[in-house]
Amino acid sequence: MSETATPFAYTVTARLRRPRTWAWAAGSVLLLALPFYLDRFWLQAGLFAMAAAIGAIGLNLLTGATGQLPMGHAFFLAVGAYGYCVLAGEGGTENGHTLSGLGLPSWLAAVLAVLLAGAAGGLFSPIAGRLRGAYLGIATLALIFIGQHVLFNASSLTGGYNGRTVPPLSLFGLTFDDTEVLVAAVPFQSSEKLWYVALLALLLSGLFARGVLRGRPGRALNALRDHRVAAGVMGVPVARYRAGVFVLSSMYAGLAGVLLALVFQRTVPEYFGMVLSLEYLAMIVIGGLGTVAGAVVGAAFVSLLPQLLTHYSESLPLVAAPGTGGLTPGEASRYLYGAAVVAVVLFLPGGLTRPMKNPGEKK
């Protein structure tokens, strides 16, 4: 590098020499090309993983960065999913229920559903700002029971036990439904179209969370996690930061709920229960607390495992196809990632993305 080269050019050149940069570039090209080669099953599995990763990133901001233990993450996913259905739906009769809907443009409904989840988190934030640890977990546990009661009984909004159909997303004149659109002689349906929406949402969510964690707010949140009293003495507004990150985590969950609804194409109340909240906690523990990469890795592991077991249930020992008796893929997956949580806690306390250092290695 010549002496007249600018610092910016030097930085760019140095980064281009890193193998990590080329690995990121190759991975990005691969993700962009996958819809042209994969079938619907694998695309939907990837969409579930990306939606789960967004929700896990939000939970990691709250749990990994501040040390809080919320148990009601599934509630805010439900707010995002059903909020989108009500805001974008036209209403009508379905499964014997008269459904309500505002008929807003679907892109606007998606944005408002995320804000609605944030508003729900804001209503709970005064409690979240004053509680910590297990006390917050017990308080947020009530949100699950309240949410399940509302989802099953407010049939005009949720469709009751059978749920309601999700209106397709429309953006820039393109409708993300099963109507075929030929791209390079490849038929694109809902899964192929939604792939790029989910990929963009995951990228923006990850970059924003990374900026928060690496900036001044992230340092304040880590101070709250390590020593709350010391952080308060240094001037960190403890209650305000805790409430703020709780609202931000709720908005991430709302966005994940909207994407899950669009992929499922139908919302079912039973899905947004206690098991889902526990799965999200497993995601961030397995992947690694306090990191965006950890949330993505953990979400991919926990969300893809039951689908892979279902897909290959006929060739796997001890795993039976759903409805045939025996150990179902869902049960087997819970046993496996439960064992993974125990293994990570014992042998990799930092998660899969933060391997434990050798005893003689310098910090």
Briefly summarize what is shown:
The chain contains 14 helices and eight strands.
What does this structure look like?
The chain is 65% helix and 6% strand. By secondary structure, the chain is mainly alpha-helical. The strands form 4 sheets. Strands 1-2 form a two-stranded antiparallel ribbon. Strands 3-8 form a two-stranded antiparallel ribbon. Mean pLDDT is 83; it is low at 356-363.
Figure out the total of helices.
Answer: 14
Q: Which term fits the overall shape?
A: globular
Which strand order spans the largest sheet, edge to edge or round the barrel?
1-2
Calculate Rg over CA atoms.
22 Å
Can you lay out the helices and strands and say which pair or pack?
Elements: H1 7-16, H2 19-33, H3 40-66, H4 73-88, E1 92-94, E2 97-99, H5 106-128, H6 134-153, H7 155-158, E3 164-165, E4 170-171, E5 174-175, E6 181-183, E7 186-188, H8 190-214, H9 216-226, H10 228-233, H11 238-264, E8 266-267, H12 274-287, H13 292-311, H14 329-347
Antiparallel strand pairs: 1-2, 3-8, 4-5, 6-7
For this entry, give a set of tags.
two-stranded antiparallel sheet, mainly alpha, two-stranded antiparallel ribbon, disordered C terminus
